[in-house]
Amino acid sequence: MTLNVLVVDDMATVRDTVIRMLRKAGMRATPAVSGTEALNELTQRQFDIALVDLKMGSMDGIELLRRIRARWPKIGVVVMSAYATVGVAVEAMRNGASHVLEKPFTMEALLDAIQLASHSSAPGDGTPAGSPFEELVGHSREFLDAVDLARRAAENDKPLLIVGEPGTGKEAFARAIHSGSTRRAGPFVVQRCAGGSIGVIAELFGVTGGSLGRIADADRGTLFIDEIGDLPAEAQARLLRFLADGEIVREAGLPTSRADVRVIAATAKDLDVEVRAGRFRNDLLLRQRTLLLRLQPLRERKADLQKLLAHYAKKNRPRGGSAPRFSRDAVRVLMTHDFPGNLRELENLIEQASSMCVGAEIGPEVFERLGLRGIDEPIDTDGGAIKNRIEGEERRAVEEAVQRNPRNLARAASELGISRTTLWRKMKKYGLLEGE
Questions:
Q1: Range list of β-strands (E), 40-92
Q2: Which of 133-161 are b and which e, b meaning 16 or more Cβ less than 10 Å from the residue's Cβ?
Q3: pTM (predicted TM-score)
Q4: What is the pLDDT of residue 197?
Q5: HEC secondary structure over 102-139
Q6: What is the SS3 assignment for 23?
Q7: Is 58 exposed, middle or buried (0-12, 13-18, 19+ CB in 10 A)?
Q8: DSSP label at 417?
Q9: CB–CB of 283/260 below 8 Å?
Q10: What is the DSSP letter of 268?
Q11: Quick one: average pLDDT of 182-190?
């Protein structure tokens, strides 16, 4: 489908350059020199995306954004700004912007912003209503890549490994994949392995005169193994046997049995490191990692914060009441927090803040009482230090994946949990393409 894009900027050079870039990419682009002209264009024809400059004459970009959201909520809006600070991003996102694009920008950055806006044209809806993935909230490029891979994982029965820090939503993704698969009518059974208790073996494979085990319970459904990296050695051997031929090896003297189960496993550990240390079987890792989904920590997907706040506030609103709003300064406090506990920490904070809130709006003082740094304390408002650290870690991860798979970029992308297109863009960004 050819996207129809409205470009609103009072500077002719910027407006004309953006239009040329969009048309070169195969899109239809219409210019507007002011907010008033943009509203007139919107009443006369249908648009998919609006690119709106922040600083204009009588009607600035935020006011135009509000009016577009009020009258045409399905249009994705990208705000362009030469002053793209955290404060600008927060205000734009609070008013429904899909993305904030910092000037000057490249063709690649423009197309990425268009992609984000086209995926999130209805604010708060990361996926179509009724989709098993609708509880997975976000619109950042990293999040959309993960959801896309999850949807594809739901279309087959192969073993899947989900990798991510604690609290990144690994079980939520596993449940969505099960619900979107042909096994949706079957059970979704969870086996937690954190700590490596020897009791895990009995829980998984059953005991004499007792339970038949979680694998048998998941027959014709999905077994989700949480923190597979903590499985004891004997359990690893038995699980490998099951993945290889579908046989459940029970206690000595008991006959084996069979079950039809799709196994999805999750870990916060680097299992390649565990293999080298002799704590995890390489053959089991290769078998379970037939498909790989890597989830980003919340600190690397701050673009999703606004939607996540709205989602958790709605989820924790009082019965019969409305969800509280978040003041601009409250959002700034959250934007500067690293969230070591990821989504789990954010949800817990919103639950506590909602219970402490007096009135319809949550202010920064609520989060400061909960231990977060206040906005008056020294912070890097541009996120420079955090951004540099994250980009350094990302570059190392991309470089290592490419080095492990020099002739198979599809495999490298799969290991990173991103698409091949995104891998190519990151290789280009970090100068990892041959000849650059």
A1: 49-53, 76-81
A2: bebbbbbbbbbbbbbebbbebbeeeebbb
A3: 0.60
A4: 63
A5: ECCCCHHHHHHHHHHHHHCCCCCCCCCCCCCCCCCCCC
A6: helix
A7: exposed
A8: T
A9: no
A10: S
A11: 92
